[in-house]
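How a chain folds remains the central question behind the approach discussed here. This step matters because it turns folding into a mapping between discrete strings. The sequence in question and its structure tokens are set out directly beneath this paragraph.
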Amino acid sequence: MRQLTYYVGASIDGFIAAPSGAYDFYPIGESFLKDFLVGEYPECLPTPVRGHMGIDGVPNTHFDTVIQGRATYDAGLKAGVTSPYAHLRQYVVSRSITESPDPAVEILSGDVLAAVRELKAEEGGLGIYLAGGADLAAQLLSEIDCLIVKVYPIVIGSGIPLFSAEFGVVDFALDELRTFDNGTIVTKYARKR
């Protein structure tokens, strides 16, 4: 059974983006970029970024599929990128986009939970990367097996939270905690079953 992992960056106060959706204020730092983002999770970097960094041919290590919400996908569309993760199988969850702007991107508009359960049940392959956002993460919370949260050393006061869900307690266990010289902390949690 494949795992669904919500791999996301957040501020100390738990926001993944500003109220406008912007997220370009997170301090990356050289060692964090090389050691973690490129060294361990290169497939989570969008294809244009991989090309710019000269790591196009680096194999995927954790994921072969990405699921993202419409707002997350729109960030790339505004820059003219219709296939942001060409090195992965791509799904976009949207009720407003009826036809994909790119043949490499499949639009999911029906029962998202059922679609994710089908993806997870596939034999072989790597895991499934949930790239955001908060509404989609809330919809898929019952299927999230792992949380990888990159907590950046900033406070932004308000914005888009990790999850936009009703109150409820879902237990996860801390698997790993790492710190980097730029002050970023990466926490990895596994769902308690």
